């Protein structure tokens, strides 16, 4: 049997097209899993810095610099997980996020700005500056959770 090249090409196109369609359709539960994972990773990187700032853990400049640099990058990641239709399911995200998306985005931008500053300041090794900037960063987490995350 001779299958024409055109038929093969056409079926390849169909396969390529349909897999594109599948990739574009992000399921709400996957978006929820994604953003919660990013938040969990941020928390993992953030917590030890809090312990160092409070004096519960010895200050380690290298760890501080590394974690702050990770946080600067991580802070760019959660927003894309808040897709339309992902306000229901295994989530603590409040519906206000989608009603006030500009404000929510502003909160994410604030987090990005403050973690970028934290990464800068950590390189100085100056505990006074580090402490102050850690506080500013923590405030952005809390402010957004107070407004947009249920308990
Ligand atoms: C602009 C908003 C915003 C900022 C800033 C923010 N968060 Fe969140 N965070 C959320 C929302 C919304 C949720 C709930 C996500 C869900 O359940 O779908 C969340 C959830 C979490 C969770 C729970 C994850 C889980 O598995 O349920 C942790 C931990 C967390 N955030 C840590 C942090 C830390 C640490 C920071 C600051 C370094 C931070 N967040 C900054 C909005 C924010």
UniProtKB/TrEMBL annotation:
Concerning Pfam families, the annotation shows: Cytochrom_C_2 (PF01322)
One GO location term (cellular component)? periplasmic space
Q: In its keyword annotation, does this UniProt entry include Repressor?
A: no
Keywords, A to Z? Electron transport, Heme, Iron, Metal-binding, Signal, Transport
Position of the signal peptide: 1-23
* Record protein name field: Cytochrome c556
Q: Tell me how the protein is altered or processed after translation.
A: Binds 1 heme group per subunit.
- Binding residues annotated for heme c, in chain numbering: 141, 144-145
One example GO MF annotation: iron ion binding
Record's SUPFAM superfamilies? Cytochromes
GO BP term (any one) = electron transport chain
